[in-house]
Each structure stands twice: as C-alpha cells, then as structure tokens.
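Write out the 3D structure for:
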Amino acid sequence: MKILRRILCILGNYLPPKLNCLFYKLAGVNLKLSKVWIGNNCYFDTQFPENIIIKDNVCISFGTTILCHFDPSESIKNHPIKKYKKKVILEEGVFIGPKTLIMPGVVIKKNTFVQPGSIVSKSTDENSFVYNSAFKKRGTLTKELISRINNQNKKFNF
C-alpha cells in the first residue's frame, strides 16, 4: 500500500490542476477535492503524503514544494542530524504563491498570504503576509547544535 501511495503522489506531482488533487487525495493527502486548487508542477512529499493536511479554500500556486521529512541516511551514512517526519498543515483561506518551499512541521494559519518564491520554515499567525527571499546563516553545525536539533526532532523519528 505504501508503494502505491508513493506512485499516486508522484503522478500527482506531474498532473494538471484538479486531476492532481485526485491523485494527491488517493495518495493520502488530507484535502477536499472541491475546496482546493493545486497548480501545475507542484511537488508534495512522496514518502509521507499523509502528513500533508490542506483545509478548505486553499490555493497552492504552480511549482510549490511541500516537504514532510528529512532523511540524510539514504545518501549520507552517519549524518549527525537524524531523520524525522512532521506534519504540514495549510489552514482555511491560505494562498501559497508560485515556487514556494514549505518545510516539515510548518502550520500556515488561516487567511495567510505567502509571497511567491518564499521559503516557509516557521509556522505563521492568522492573517499573515509572509515573504522570504534572503539567505541567512543560522549558525555553525557544532556538536551542541546537532544535539539540540536531534533532541527537538526525537519525537518525530521514523
């Protein structure tokens, strides 16, 4: 069943609007087909599509990526940051601009507008205008930081 869901999600990533919603729904994404618009060439996490929850009256523009997990162990052996998965929730009335990246664990609250090209790595407040295009260094990957990241994500391990 897991493989079938992954295939359905992959197909949804390449199908045109409305047909893509059907395939995402079959893959396990929690959405109402008549209440959501998902544009062309979006990429929804194929490992854990069931961790994506999209409420009513949401518009997701073309090229948006929604990630629900982090797993370096597939390609990098002994990576210091351990794998995890988290839900992504888009509440009622949300608009996601084209080419937006939504990171694991984010809740985009009711009536939020996300500007095109944004990287959403934190949850929002209701009625927010969100934009982000500048890269900012958050810190150096020290043993203490790795430990803190792994401890924060421990309950989300899979």
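The helical segments are 2-14, 19-27, 143-153.
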